[in-house]
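Morning. Coffee machine broken again, so started the prediction first thing and wrote up yesterday's gels while waiting. Chain of 691 residues, entered below exactly as on the submission form.
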Amino acid sequence: MGKSGYRPDIDGLRALAVLPVVFGHAGLPGFSGGFIGVDIFFVISGFLITSILVREISAGDFSVARFYERRARRILPALFAMMLACLIGGWFLMPPEAFGALGRSVIAAILFLSNVWFARSTEDYFGTAAEWEPLLHTWSLSVEEQFYLGFPLLLCLLARGPRALMTVGVALLTVASFAFSIWQTRTEPTAAYFLTPARVWELSAGALLAMGVLPNLKQRALAELIGLAGVLMIIASIAFYGPQTAFPGSAAMLPVAGAIALIWAGSAGENRVSRLMGNPLLVAIGLISYSLYLWHWPVLVGLRLLQGSTHLSTGLALFAVALSLLLAWGSWKFIEQSFRAGRKTRITRPLLTRLSAVSAMLLLGTGFAIKTYDGFPSRLPEPQLATYQQAFSGIDRQERCMKKTPATGLCTMGGTPEESQENMDLFLWGDSHAAAWLPGFDQLLEKQKFTGMAALKSGCPPLMGLRRVDKSESHRCDLFNEQVIELLKSREDMPVVVLAARWALAAEENRPEGGKGSQFTSAESYTTAVPDWAVQATYSSRGALVAHRLDQTVAAIRATGRKVILIKGVPEIGHSVPAALAKAAFTDTVFPKGPTASGVETRQQQSDNILDLVAERHGAYTVNPRELLCEDNCRIAFGRDLLYRDDDHLTAFAARRLLPALIEKAPPIKGLGNRVTYSELNEPSAQPPRG
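Came back before lunch.
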């Protein structure tokens, strides 16, 4: 440590934090746990800022205004510049729905509430939807700023008592937050990941280190051993953690402890580990780490938008890293340094306040305008605008129906009033993919003067006894499905039950583009071993579990005397089809083809085998929408009408177009539909939308 108190090893630690984040987000192999870099940043922040706070409070020189001025100079200029770039890029690249979401996230980020926004608006940090959000990474800034709203005042209050009170108070805060983090990671994992209460302990752990809770290291060899252990803990977290890791909770202890070990070892004076961490290359990256963190994610989202897919090739990922480094250097050199040059800067506190206020108001106003005008759909030329808007029709009803339960009353189908729940002809049960079939069933049943009821819950395939551990405790797929079975047992109508879901996602560990799949565990009352037939019929323990649970579900339905129809999975496209339409319109390029049929069938093979086997075991029927959608490639549009409203959910148009042909193949209700063939869907007059 020099006379100025500057520690190059901490800048090296910043590099060790930011590089795994960047590499992991870019999808480079070996960095599945790169997200732990944020936890290291929290520890560093808590350590450095508390060091200043304790020194100033002890000297009676603490100023709230000066503290927040330093935060503003550090955080706001580069943040505002990045957000402005996202808005400009979003105008030219993002479809209306996504651009509208960007407007909302701008508002949240300006108010330092983006962690709250993303906890509510995304399935989870690792989900596919999150990879299209340019400001997703600002959640961690919101956590820090929420923490520093109250932490300095807490220290000032504790400083009025005995000297040890400050340390004891922060220690109690750390323990309470850590315990809460463990509990919430188990019960509400998305909230635990994004929200501040489960993250406070990581910042306050760094604060405790700054307050001297660990003894000074006097032996160089011991400092080197502790520093080496810290490096190994961080590397292990990066290499072995991944989207499947329950995080933060107890798992966050490893990277947090690693960061604390390195900072502690470096405080003992120069040693081999601190020299390694303080080498010029790491220090240079550490100096630009904040800007690198800010710019890398919008760069990745921009490239995904340009290519229409969340998966980047290795070459494109490396290009994204290089471009992010270049932008980060420019941001650090020309923006950060201009505002953080201490007394040399011409930007005084009053000027900084005015600039910050004006910039924030302009960004807020822009965000509100984008939100109010739904992402400015008029950016799309006709007829692409009409095509785009048509793709999202019917979603409100689907969302509404997925919030209903057997206890509160389910949605009815076929034009039947919601209050009329008697003498139904058909029962639809499943997740959001089943909900996507609602418009088709509404049309079909109403035309034939039939009635129906739908039990739908997002993220919950009709599989008895399975719980989603990656959802909050209140989501309770197992409870919902148990209520559905009890409903069927209590009624004598609804002779036909249709089960539909995103079966491939249920049966596989991962999404087709490589992201994390849904995470299941057996409910307490369904702990029986998976039978041998299910293990032998599938090629993964996950597939065997799904086969077993589907078998139990269909058996329970058949025991009530009902017929069962299983709708197999629709093709998963791998990119947002409306976004592809918008890109074609913005760039005047040809609307892309759908995925190859061979690739789709490979993805669906295990789930198809499960459905076929269960149907054979219980005398159920299967229908396959891919027979109508796929030849060499699988269609994503018919004429000017899109068949998907995102990367995997059918549009209302598709449901109405395809369902009659599917029902025609199901003997229990064969007379309901009119046959449609792939050749009719592929007739020459049906030209796809173009840019």
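Strands lie at 411-413, 426-430, 452-456, 466-468, 496-500, 520-522, 563-567, 621-623, 637-638, 641-642. Going to sketch it on the whiteboard this afternoon.
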